[in-house]
Amino acid sequence: MSEECTHECSTCGSSCSERTQEQTNFREKPHELSNIKKVIGVVSGKGGVGKSLVTSMLAVLTKRSNYQTAILDADITGPSIPKSFGLHEKASGSELGLYPVKTKTGISVMSLNLLTENETDPVIWRGPIIAGTVKQFWTDVIWGDVDYMFIDMPPGTGDVPLTVFQSIPVDGLIIVASPQELVGMIVEKAVNMAQMMHIPVLALVENMSYVTCPDCGKEYYVFGESHIDAIAKKFGISTIAKLPIDPKLAAACDSGMIELFDGNWLNNIMKLLESEEM
Ligand SMILES: Nc1ncnc2c1ncn2[C@@H]1O[C@H](COP(=O)(O)OP(=O)(O)OP(=O)(O)O)[C@@H](O)[C@H]1O
């Protein structure tokens, strides 16, 4: 029995002598025309902390390194990926399945906003329908060959993230948090959920960590001293990144130009993704 045993035998993948229940396998197969090598989930404890921004930036970096890249926007009720890439066309389909929409640089994207008639239509669905839609983005979308798929997860640790973790083989998670969250329990909850689902936490990103003065270049930690190093150490997460509050990033998202962002803040996560450890 592992030291981290949660006694949740139905969701545990290890075959140990203490097993009391059969493992229930909820894994869904991707579309037969999809060949997806690595799946990275981007999660946050709560909404609005920059999860979609980090998902978009990591996808842009992998694409810049010439990998076949895809984004599955699992944030069904608040999809923001199409907007940051300036995607307004609708996804098309055939009798074989649905086709993702390509961004200007060739990143494949599927999001509910690419399917609804109006981008502003609210999605007033209950949890199981939302979770079912995410599953369909995995099973019914013809993704083709993908080296890295990033999943922009819905915030929190509820119904939908649980279904995604159970039905899609996620290779690793990147947790995005604001400086305030890093002093509370929200990040701890996300780390604990990852452990319970047996998914490794690859990296921790502190978004809106600091502001750089445009005149003198000095960094100001407006939310107080950063706690990311201590939290990463506590949970044994070796890769961290700090993203400043940068009006250029907000403007790039708003104008659909995130593919043009300039900055090396997430380069060490990129290195990790390309390394043998992944
Ligand atoms: N470091 C940053 N600098 C400037 N603007 C930022 C930064 N991070 C996020 N933003 C802006 O804050 C807003 C929220 O970010 P984003 O949509 O990525 O958050 P989220 O965690 O995905 O939210 P939700 O879960 O509600 O979808 C966006 O308008 C984004 O452009």
UniProtKB/TrEMBL annotation:
Family of this protein: Belongs to the Mrp/NBP35 ATP-binding proteins family.
Lineage top rank: taxon: Bacteria
Keyword ATP-binding: yes
Signal peptide: none
Binding-site residues, ATP: 45-52
Pfam families: ParA
Function: Binds and transfers iron-sulfur (Fe-S) clusters to target apoproteins. Can hydrolyze ATP.
SUPFAM superfamilies associated with the record: P-loop containing nucleoside triphosphate hydrolases
One of the GO BP terms on file: iron-sulfur cluster assembly
Name of the protein described by the UniProt record: Iron-sulfur cluster carrier protein
Subunit organization: Homodimer.
InterPro entries: Mrp/NBP35_ATP-bd (IPR019591), NUBPL-like (IPR044304), P-loop_NTPase (IPR027417), YlxH/NBP35 (IPR033756)
Organism: Caproiciproducens galactitolivorans
Keywords in alphabetical order: ATP-binding, Hydrolase, Iron, Iron-sulfur, Metal-binding, Nucleotide-binding
Molecular functions per Gene Ontology: 4 iron, 4 sulfur cluster binding; ATP binding; ATP hydrolysis activity; ATP-dependent FeS chaperone activity; metal ion binding
Upper taxonomic lineage: Bacteria, Bacillati, Bacillota, Clostridia, Eubacteriales
